[in-house]
Amino acid sequence: MKRLSFILVLFMIVAACAPKPNPAAQIQLAVAQTVAAIPTYTPYPTPRILPTATPMNLVGLFCEYQFCIGHPVSIAFFDLDAQHNPLAPSSITQGMLAAYTSGLFIQVIWQDATGASDASFMLGTIMDSKVDSRSGDLKAIHLGGLNVDYVSITTTATSSLPYGGAAAWMCGGRAFAWKAYTPQAGLATNLLNEALQKFRCNPN
């Protein structure tokens, strides 16, 4: 009996002297085991973005400043305001574009005209009184869903392009004007028709 008591006392001493487990290590082990036991999910497949069709052919089309306008494929518009002053390029509320070759010159201008319903005042802005003259009566025509004021012109700006036309219209709170110099009379109306059949604008 004394031997059993001795063994029991010896066991208690050994147990009391044994190293105690670290509580922080036990917590880390429990957290790791819990995280490992959380079920994983199969990720959703990444959707493929398919290209969409462009509503109109981009060949011969200028789109910027929240409007689009057609032009002959042989020329391209550039920002005339930025050419004159790189620090003050065209903007949504006002601007000026030009395109030219040896056989054609086209200019487009626009400005904010909120509250206005008639853009005919823009004809006086786009026509240069020093070189442009009206060669016909002002006509109200309907092109590309727009009500357009149009007039045939002659010009002395360049001897190789003595004819042309000028037009003005309203769209989205802005007034637009267009002018072309051509080598032959009557070509400007075809160019205007091409420009406005593709014309679209957003409110400024």
Describe the structure.
There is one protein chain. Strand 8 and strand 9 (163-171) form a beta hairpin. The protein has a domain at 61-201: 3-Layer(aba) Sandwich (Protein Transport Mog1p, Chain A), CATH 3.40.1000. The protein has helices at residues 2-17, 23-37, 80-84, 121-126, 187-197, and strands spanning 61-64, 67-70, 78-79, 94-101, 104-112, 132-134, 139-143, 146-155, 163-171, 174-182, 200-201. Strands 3, 4, 5, 6, 7, 8, 9 and 10 form an eight-stranded antiparallel sheet that branches. The protein is an alpha+beta fold and 204 residues long.
Number of strands: 11
**What series of H and E elements makes up the topology?**
HHEEEHEEHEEEEEHE
What is the highest CATH level, the class of the domain at 61-201? Answer: Alpha Beta
Low-confidence stretches: none
Overall geometry comes to rod-shaped
User: How much helical structure, as a percent, in the residues?
Assistant: 25-40%
